[in-house]
Every structure is written in C-alpha cells, then in structure tokens.
Amino acid sequence: MADAGQVPQRLRVTVAVCTEPGAVREWCGDMPAGAQLVDALRLAGCDVTALDSVGIWGKAAPLTQVLRDGDRVETYRALRVDPKVARRERFVSQGARSAGLFVRKPVPKR
C-alpha cells in the first residue's frame, strides 16, 4: 500500500463528453502522473478546439490543470436558453393559476 504523501505513477481518470442533449459518452483510462486535462481529452478522442468549456467534477478548470487520481473530466455545452428566461416563458404558457407559488395545493387531511 502506498504512503498518503506518495504520488501514484499512473492516474485513473474518467472523461465524460456531452455529445448532444441527453447523451453522454464516458471513457475511463489510465494516464501517466502529471498529465493535464487537455491530455485526457485528447486520449478520449475529443476535438479540444471545438469545446465550449471543460471542468473537473462539475467545476470549471483550465486545459492546463494537472489531473489527480480519480478525477472526472467533463465537457460542457453552451446553454441555448437562459434558465431564467425559460422559467418565465413556462410560467406564462402555463398560466398564473397553474404554476409556481400560486398553485392551490390540496390540504392534507389529519
């Protein structure tokens, strides 16, 4: 068993690529210690120049970020619609009485 302070020779990394809405392709593999985020993306077959943004475990990270054992590299697509605008549009289309705080909820019987 390795010491807590010892750096592993190989890193186990997962790369998750969002190819289209609702579709994610995952690749798991070993990389040498000291590998960067861009190295993992290239090894997984991603076109690095076409990516909107990338991160590790849901947090944005630069392509030069050095990876650690167990990291999950993720690619993110740009949002097509601002979430606040989409919520307002849903509220308008559903009507004020059937959405949000104005919904009449049944009172639980005791």
Characterization of this structure:
The chain is of the alpha+beta class and 110 residues long. The chain has a domain at 10-76: Roll (Ubiquitin-like (UB roll)), CATH 3.10.20.30. It is 17% helix and 29% strand. The chain has a five-stranded mixed sheet, covered by helices on one side. A hairpin with a 2-residue loop joins β3 (53-56) and β4 (59-60). It is elongated.
Keyphrases for this structure?
single chain; 110 residues; alpha+beta; Ubiquitin-like (UB roll); 5 strands
Low-pLDDT regions: none
Average of the residue pLDDT scores: 80
Radius of gyration equals 21 Å
Number of H- or I-type helical stretches? 2
Task: Look at the helices and sheets and give the structural class.
Answer: alpha+beta
Q: Architecture of one domain, according to CATH?
A: Roll
Distance between the termini: 58 Å
Q: According to CATH, what is the topology of one domain?
A: Ubiquitin-like (UB roll)
How many beta-strand elements? 5
Beta-strand residue fraction: 25-35%
In CATH, what is the homologous superfamily of one domain?
Beta-grasp domain
Give helix and strand order, one letter per element, not per position. Answer: EEHEEEH
Query: What's the arrangement of strands in the largest beta sheet?
Result: 2-1-5-3-4
Shape descriptor: elongated
Residues in helix, %: 10-25%
CATH class of one domain: Alpha Beta
Largest sheet: 5 strands, mixed
